[in-house]
Amino acid sequence: MDDRIVEVTLPYIEAGTLTWTGKDGRLVLGFEDAQVTHLLDGRHTVVTVEGILGVYEAPTLREYLTNLIDEGNGDLIVDLTGVGVLDSTNLGVLVAACKRLRTQRPDPRTLYLVAHKDTGPVHRIMLITGLTKVFYLCDCVPNALRAAPTEPPEQQEAPAETAVGPAAGGQEDPR
Fold first, then answer.
1. What whole-number distance in Å separates Cα of residue 47 and Cα of residue 114?
2. pLDDT tens per residue, the chain (175 residues)?
3. Which residues are bridge partners to 83 per DSSP?
4. Which of 9, 15, 53, 63 is deepest in the core (most CB within 10 A)?
């Protein structure tokens, strides 16, 4: 039997929200039927969401992402591979987070979504709604980290020409 102490705080008892320290030492926020955690990877924040994202989870997810966006300075990578259901309310939360990142001043940032390609419910919803044109959609976190620039925009060299549209693989640069 494993003898370890896990601290549990109840910041919002009426909202059904719990926080605890996960096995990897990261703080986990559990709410309703989902849980979310994050870590910094270089200048980017990787958010991992698991469970069912229904209407009751949307306010907590919105607040969590908004706080991360306001506190961070790099791109945001949201791993949704552990999400079984994504409703329209939480889809709106992701769109709002994307918009908030793009309007950050002085340097706009990008939201990358990670979802199982072709087999997962999140990828299917993105295809049906046409949101693959809004979000960068990656199949795993390492690919999203490779796609995200490692230097702040002011330190990057400007590309000579940027390809956009179907000739560039069908996905436009969402910035």
1. 10
2. 445 544 444 344 345 566 666 667 776 777 778 888 899 888 899 999 999 898 888 998 999 999 999 988 889 999 999 999 999 999 999 999 999 999 987 788 999 999 988 778 898 899 899 998 888 999 999 999 999 887 765 554 444 433 333 334 445 444 4
3. 51
4. 53
Distance CA 103, CA 64 (A): 18
Domains of the chain: 25-146 (3.30.750.24)
Residue spans of alpha helices (H) in 72-140: 88-102, 121-129
Contact 66, 34 (CB under 8 A): no
User: 3-state class of 7 per DSSP?
Assistant: coil
CA dist 30 and 51 (Å) reads 10
